[in-house]
Specification:
This protein is α/β, with parallel strands linked by helices and about 260 residues long. The chain has 9 helices and 12 strands. A hairpin with a 2-residue loop joins strand 4 and strand 5.
């Protein structure tokens, strides 16, 4: 039986520089996978390439979602199929209100107009879960938002769009402990037996709240070690050096960008 989301020997470059160098990873329905790695190991390159960012050129391998290759799909097509990326650095969109942006996004995901009352009910539920007032969605998308507000806005989108596969690129960066708990609760509310989640992070702290089924260490564009939550605990206690040494890598050689 095929996995929900399959990354098969993926190679990605930026310009002429290879960044992801033969990465294979299968995520089954209901599974949460975490990718951890030092700065420059290729984590954000992987996330952007999976979503179809044109700057990141796939030079080999395949990516399949629900058994169908998505590499020829534009980013909006991938999103409508149920692929979601929470950005490490969400972009400001002045002049576009959150509520209009969200409703258009939900309509695109559904392929039909969602009734206004139903949309507002869903929106209210998600806002309550994130401890946010409805005045938040009257503001322009990410314009003047704090770091925590931007990350909550990403989780708000996650809750409304209900993607089949969510890629969370360092969603915990810049969050204080209270905001981290709220954002983690939002991710956990989305977690169910039918979807998959890929958490990309530097630190164990997010994983204390969103417990992954599998943890992978990404170094120099490759996964060099996989395990369960105990691997994340080992990284927190010992850092990356012991794993790098076991793989015959130095910290300097481990950097791909």
């Amino acid at each position: 039986m095929s996995a929900l989301f399959e990354i098969d020997d993926l190679h990605v470059r930026v310009g002429q520089k290879p960044i992801v160098k033969g990465l294979t990873l299968n995520i089954g329905a209901g599974e949460v996978h975490a990718i951890m790695g030092p700065n420059g190991s290729g984590k954000s390159t992987l996330a952007n390439a999976l979503m179809g960012h044109p700057r990141y050129e796939v030079t080999g391998g395949d990516v399949r979602f629900q058994s169908e290759s998505i590499l020829q799909d534009a980013p909006d097509v991938r999103a409508r199929k149920g692929l979601f990326l929470a950005f490490q650095y969400p972009t400001d969109v002045p002049g576009v209100s959150m509520i209009n942006f969200l409703r258009r996004a939900v309509n695109a995901r559904l392929g039909a107009e969602i009734p206004v009352r139903e949309f507002r009910q869903q929106l209210r539920t998600e806002l309550d879960g994130l401890q946010m007032d409805e005045s938040f969605v009257r503001r322009y998308v990410n314009d003047g938002f704090s770091g925590g507000e931007k990350k909550r806005a990403e989780i708000l989108q996650l809750g409304l769009l209900k993607p089949g596969m969510a890629i969370m690129d360092e969603t915990d960066s810049g969050l204080d402990i209270d905001a981290l708990r709220v954002v983690s609760d939002g991710i956990n509310r989305h977690r169910n037996a039918d979807n998959g989640i890929l958490l990309i992070t530097h630190y164990q702290r997010l994983l204390n709240y969103v417990r992954p089924d599998f943890v992978h260490v990404l170094v120099d564009g490759r996964i060099i070690k996989s395990g369960d939550f105990a691997l994340a605990e080992q990284l927190e206690a010992e850092g990356y050096d012991p794993i790098l040494q076991a793989a015959g890598l130095t910290p300097e050689a481990a950097l791909s960008s």
